[in-house]
Design goal:
The chain has seven helices and 17 strands. By secondary structure, it is an alpha+beta fold. It has an eight-stranded mixed sheet with strand order 4-3-5-6-7-8-9-10, with helices on both faces. The structure holds 2,5-anhydro-1,6-di-O-phosphono-D-glucitol (AHG) and manganese (II) ion (2 copies).
């Protein structure tokens, strides 16, 4: 049986859910998936093309950028910057907003992305990925501006991520469930493999960088301690899994349940992960799959990014474990 549900066929088939849809958003998602295919190829061949190194530059976060960070960024800026539908872009690798070819930002949408997440791992075949989210401009009649990125995650019109691992997967949502695709290299097409992904209501895996333990608040130490202490009622001890690539840790949490947490700590009082193009898109996906995503006390999707590169704490996963975190660490329901 040939795979009939390719990404573009599936996306266009869903358009009937949106009677006033013009097909623009569907085109954008297909364009993003083309960029993901290019990056997948780049990641797979970087080793023998000598692209695992550093550029010698640092990005706006003071992090050393790798050649692949820059290459992946250029693919997406070139591909999506030439779409008439995007008025502005934000990339983790660029200090400020990126103009597109749409005349004076006339495009209806704005896009924020992390072109290559987990890039510190590329030399060791650990999965990496791309993360993105799309907003509609606040005022369609006005050219896009930085202010169009100052919207709560609840206003996201589409979000998704890819994982460049043993297979290249593409997971997205436009607000009607979460759908997963796998790249069939022989076809060069993403084929539907997981329609309507639902995160398990609870899991048995926790994912955190325990190297930060001495910087955590007492509440976080208490919570992680509870996950590790044998307790028949809670099912603890949970298994610990931490890849160090957000997309890989998130994808496992989405499919198997449990919790991923990167809380603030005394070393990172504002958090480690970026709100706009790491936390918000994955929070949108998690909630669409029946999970929950917090910055600690608040829902990630209720937050409005002031600065395009601002950081946040990120606690995401099955509702059971995320609410358990909120109760123990913040004393909130
Ligand atoms: P990026 O490669 O886009 O900078 O993201 C790296 C992030 C994320 O992928 C991962 O969860 C986190 O860095 C790991 O941070 P630690 O090394 O501090 O655990
Ligand atoms: Mn990242
Ligand atoms: Mn990155």
């Amino acid at each position: 049986m040939i795979p009939t549900q390719t990404l573009s066929r599936f996306i266009h088939s869903k358009r009937r859910l949106y009677p006033d849809s013009t097909g623009e958003l569907s085109d954008l998602l297909v364009s993003i998936s083309l960029g993901v295919k290019y990056i997948s190829q780049m990641v797979a061949t970087a080793g023998f093309k000598g692209l695992h190194g550093y550029t010698g530059k640092t990005n706006s976060h003071g992090e050393e950028t790798r050649q692949l960070d820059e290459e992946a960024d250029e693919v997406l800026v070139e591909l999506l910057g030439s779409s008439q539908h995007f008025g502005l872009l934000v990339s983790e690798e660029r200090d400020s907003v990126i103009e597109t070819q749409a005349a004076q930002g006339e495009g209806k949408y704005v896009l924020a992305f992390d072109p290559l997440d987990g890039s510190s791992n590329i030399g060791s075949s650990i999965p990496t990925g791309t993360i993105f989210c799309i907003f509609r401009k606040k005022e369609l009649s006005r050219p896009a501006s930085h202010d169009d990125f100052r919207q709560p995650g609840s206003e996201i019109v589409a979000a998704g991520y890819s994982v460049y691992g043993a297979k290249t997967s593409f997971v997205y949502s436009t607000g009607s469930g979460v759908h997963g695709f796998t790249l069939d290299p022989s076809l060069g097409e993403f084929v539907l493999t997981d329609e309507n992904i639902r995160i398990p209501t609870r899991g048995l895996i926790y994912s955190v960088n325990e190297g930060n333990t001495s910087y955590w608040s007492d509440g976080v130490k208490d919570f992680v301690g509870q996950l590790k202490s044998p307790d028949a009622a809670s099912g603890a001890p949970y298994s610990g899994r931490y890849v160090g690539s957000l997309v890989a840790d998130f994808d496992r949490t989405l499919r198997k349940g449990g919790i991923f947490l990167y809380p603030t700590d005394t070393k990172r009082p504002k958090g480690r992960l970026r709100l706009l193009y790491e936390c918000m898109p994955l929070a949108f996906i998690a909630e669409q799959a029946g999970g929950l995503a917090l910055n600690g006390p608040d829902n990630i999707l209720a937050l409005v990014p002031e600065d395009i590169h601002e950081r946040s704490a990120f606690i995401v996963g099955s509702e059971h474990e995320v609410r358990w975190y909120k109760r123990v660490v913040h004393g909130l329901k």
